[in-house]
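FAQ: What does the model actually see?

It sees only this:
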Amino acid sequence: MTKTSIRFTDLFRYWRDLPHQRAAMAILAEQIPIEALSRDSEWFKVWSQAGKQPASSRGNPLSVPWFSQMDSATDQAARMCFSSSCAMLASFLRPGSLLGPNGDDQYLRTVRQYGDTTDAAAQLSALASYGIQATFTQKASFATIETQIDAGIPVPCGYLHRGPVGAPTGGHWLIVCGYDYTHLIVHDPFGEADLISGATVAPVARFAYYSRKNFGRRWMVEGEGTGWAIIAQQ
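And it is asked to produce this:
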């Protein structure tokens, strides 16, 4: 018989503080090693930060519109993650510049005036045409993301989304809309990724929580401060 499991975060996704849920949590607490709940544990250090959420001048997460690359009316759907992510950036920073649920198709047309959807230089030129000055870096870190979010600017990031987390492969782009102490809050235009296995587990990834631990291994694959990102100005 095959055993099935659930992600621990799903316990809280459906939490309504009902009697049967409290009873179930009491059973779970009895099964957790006591040292894991000590005041010196990493869990307690994070938990005790309740009420100390990182602040952003425009909210955290930022209210970034979401585009799915897979509903594109073009022949580029499977390979336009970079354009879809930058389109979300443009739509947020320049409201009304891209219209409708397929605004990323409009943005892609602009990109193709300058080059291929996978070309960072073409993306920067397309953003500039919307009045957004940006740079491409291969030296981003979590601190880079936090600085941008705190300034009210979402961050497109390139990472390896396929294969197991210990040996990732397959370049992909998403946009980070917010963060907390343990996770990044993202719009992933392809769908929600399982960061452990590299599988896609849901077609929609709007304000999805990606753990820093596992996203970092796929994003900063050459070590701290080696993440690919688009850094925009207001």
